[in-house]
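User: For a benchmark we're assembling, each entry needs the component sequences followed by a predicted structure for the full assembly. Here are entry 17's components. Please fill in the structure.
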Amino acid sequence: MDAFSHLITGLQAALSISNLLMALVGALLGTLVGVLPGLGPTSTMAMLIPLTAVLSPSSAIIMMAGIFYGAQYGGSTTSILVNIPGEVSSVPTLLDGYPLALQGKAGPALGIAAIGSFVAGTGGVIGLTFFAPVLADQALRFGPPEYFALMVLALTVMVSVSGSSIIKGLLIGAFGYLMSLVGIGPTSGLPRFHYGAPVLYGGFETVTMAMGVFAIAEVLAGLEESRKAVTHHKIEKLFPNLRDVRQTMPAMLRGGTIGFLLGLLPGCNPAVTAFISYDVEKKVSRHPERFGKGALEGVAAPESANNATSSAAFVSLFALGIPASPALAVLMGGLMIYGLQPGPLLFRDRPDFVWTIIGSMYIGNVMLLVLNLPLVGLWARLTRAPYAIMAPVILILCLIGSYSLRNSTFDMGMTLIFGVIGYFIRKYGWPTAPLVLCGILGPILEKSLVNSLAMSAGSPMIFVTRPICLALLVAAVALLLISLKVLRKNVKEEY
Amino acid sequence: MKTKKVFVALVVSVFVAGIAGMCLVQAAEPAYPTKQVELIQTAAPGGGQDAVSRAVAEYVTKKWGQPVVVVNKPGGGTVVGAHYALKEAKPDGYTIFAEAQIPSSMMVAGMLNPPIKLEDRIFIARVVLDPICFAVNADAPWKTFKELSDWAKAHSKELTWGSTGPFGTSAFGVGEWLVSLGLNPLDTRMVVSSGFAETIPRLLGGHIMLACQTVAEFYPLVKAGKVRALAVVSEKRNTHLPEIPTATEAGVPGLKGVNWWSGVSAAKGTPQYVVDKWAKVTEEMVKDPTFLEKMNNLHVTVSYVGLNAFRDAVYKEAETYTMLAPKLGVRK
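Assistant: Structure for entry 17:
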């Protein structure tokens, strides 16, 4: 019960007035940057680093951590309301969230997203509290071959997000993969497909791809459909009721568990986690055909997964000093300015500090729930705004968001180009999600494959001689078979 | 109404007089900076390069009373940001480049046709450096750098090592070591990652045998006993890890070493008074106690080299790496 007594001390410290205030500021800022697409916690935290000159270490880090996990709460807002994925990990959320908003159910969708975020975020902090050192060591067993197998497993999600035609899904996926090849090769270090233009060395940001094919394409489609596209049905209800919560609770718990476990792996992209949890939900559902048309579980699972991932990411930061995401790298930089060294030493030398931060994360999650639930009603009313107002707002949000990723006007242009591509994909009834999925998976697959073969001096036996890797590959085959079965059943029911 | 006009006239005349006065004083060189200066950083927020440039920006802002802001333009293995700062932006002193080894010496060594060349910039100052350190898993059989070297000589085809890119800091570091042992680096197994955050879990999990990262990156793991640091490649022992021997002390002499470093440069064509002003301010900066404490907390070593000396150091470094590059299978 050592962790328990530490936690009590930590909670007491986190409950001091100044620390509570910092947690609130963090939660507010986090929600804000989470809502604004593209503008992630990373740049916000980096801008606040100079504040470390005036704040005490625990106050500053409580605030920065609050921004980090708070951003996960707001992240779903634009995906559900206006089909803008602020981050790639929000893409699975919009697959069902946006159809729900179109049906006038934005309120329940946002509410479920907030509750799921709270359940999984808190669950993740509990995991961090009691198992951090053990889990961090287990996660180290994942080397390049295991990551390769995990990405193969994630690739089976393709079937779930391809709609009724797997062939179309594969073709779109191949296009997404080709796009991801542009830029510096992940293992060669050399540029590919740059045609002499230095800006292409940087490749395409998957987020610009996602914002283009979902949000911009939706605006373009709205022009065509004589301004009907973003005109929603009557708002049925502003908040989810108890039945909605009870119905989606298993999805939240499953999404949260998957998110937490995969979040422990520093090399696993959060978007991969969100896609996998979405896919699992569709597989266990008795009505998989509802997915993609407005299933609340389809919102609950990936949103919960995202939040659990952000809690789990603290495990490798605190236990090993390894930042699993750019935002955590900034947080780590913040710690170092105070002369605090994240990693095993921090737990040993400054347990008071670590436990205060962990304590504040419990409090911060409660604050975020209280903060976000009332906002739900406000956001849901926004869906009544006419197309003529919403369309320019969506465009501007996407452009600002894509610019802020790398301070690059090139990314703004690419968002628009991907918007036009997405418009045509959509017009001819092709699925768009595989584009984004393969865009993220491609580079990780390539890197882990090349690295695995480098480890084994070219022998593919490395994938079957390592138990975790083999188990994941077997699971991938099993999931693929289940997916195909579900797909066949759906197609049969449709025709 | 009348009082207002008088007031406006008064304000205007004060301004005119003020500006005229300033012109008289500084007739030789225009005032700089008169507006915000952007410091272009090729790394994403977080990490050592970004932290150093933010500390530089903070100090210079305070000194000059004009905001110096860090603008992160990551991507393309530093090509995107470097090209923007050195070839796209106006060379008027309001876009300054956060210089480092990757966009300069390593890029011109690793690529046959690098999109940015050393001649494209005016080197102003190197501020800090951080030497590389060779480390193995805490449970590994090799207790010293000599033992690892002897093992590698006999088993070079089995050696797996973590690299942060085929012509990155760790690749040149390991490459120099292997060549000095008379081995062919291409015989060994290089496992490439996107940075230390990916390489270190691989070392801790036993997926690779050797990692070669900077002192600052290894620092917490060495202190906690999670990895065994075998040697720091520098002339003298590092002040942050004084318990770790240098490569020569560890029985492997003759390595020049590879350094991670951070500094500032400006695009070719930037006015001389801008260059001079930055050279002066950075030279003062490395004596500022607050700045020094920050660098100490980041576990990097303050090592100031200005203007021509800095340029010569980078050219020399580039020459060494260029000789090494073909043996690593790069520069194609």
